[in-house]
Amino acid sequence: MRGFKRVPLPEGTVERLIGIACLSPSVGLSEPWRFVLVDDATRRAGIRGCFGVCNKEALEMQDPDRAALYARLKLAGLDDAPVQISVFADRTTAQGAGLGRRTMPETLDYSVAIAIHTLWLAARAEGLGVGWVSILDPARMTQILDVPSEWVFIGHLCVGYPLKEDDTPALEREGWEHRHAPDGVVIRR
Amino acid sequence: MRGFKRVPLPEGTVERLIGIACLSPSVGLSEPWRFVLVDDATRRAGIRGCFGVCNKEALEMQDPDRAALYARLKLAGLDDAPVQISVFADRTTAQGAGLGRRTMPETLDYSVAIAIHTLWLAARAEGLGVGWVSILDPARMTQILDVPSEWVFIGHLCVGYPLKEDDTPALEREGWEHRHAPDGVVIRR
Q1: Do B39 and A180 touch (CB under 8 A)?
Q2: Which of A51, A121, B120, B133 places its Cα 20 to 30 Å from the Cα of B45?
Q3: How confident is the model at residue A1 (pLDDT cuts 50, 70, 90)?
Q4: Using the beta-carbon criterion (under 8 Å), do A96 and B172 form an inter-chain contact?
Q5: What DSSP character marks residue B8?
Q6: What gap in Å lies between CA B70 and CA B34, rounded to an integer?
């Protein structure tokens, strides 16, 4: 979702969505998610700038036959979404006492990705849209938001009322990529 | 979920759940999920052995005051679950033409974690339970399952009918860890 109405959300909406996200499962019940509500205009401008730089670099690396299409794609709703939430994983959390993550510490990050997905589904259920922006530099996000350097940046979310509803993924609608049948991704052992 | 009835799933169930998982969002519509249905007894025994080794090492690293409790926890349903699915992320996929993942290739792994969460929710909606086993060695899983070495191991799933229903997370029930209020994980910038 990248097209948002410039309409604020009803009071308490963001807190409710985050509360639901916090009911997600997590490795060892570590609940490693950290939600940063970004309202400050200067920080928002910094994130917008970071996206601009990263997206320009991505455009320059496109195959020539794809570059024009890439340049036409709208890849973030940073200018319009009323709510922006940056989400991090606290890799240093003591909660859960390390259970389930000794060989796979990255499961902390996966737990946070799943919490974002929960927030996303809860938002959709009340008619809101969520856009996950990943065309960003994680180290720069940590600086802009002044959060602990041990936190792993997972994603930056735009949340708001969608400009329009559509069941087809935007990248499919625009001719960038299409969904494939599940048969090709299942093997038996 | 770690306690499963030794009851097979109705024909077509696994394929339906994977089909729903494949409707998940993914970075750049890359659909990087790869599902490995593990039925072979030797491979299952290999995974059971891998879990045993990793869990023993984890037990040895527990604080003395936690070790007895850790040893009592049931941390996997590998002996009883009728269905086992290993899930990987194909970091080399050309699908999506790299969109959205140049600065954050790990978003491919997050997309797969979210697909697992979708499968999990779909399973719960029809009365099934899912256990995500992470006390495993990713490199060993790649060997045991003979899958491409470029695939990133995300998690091993046990799927089946739960021995009992319970809304309280098992680790909370057992006194290992408890849920915390969302207030502590939200900051404003």
Answers
A1: no
A2: B120
A3: confident
A4: no
A5: P
A6: 32
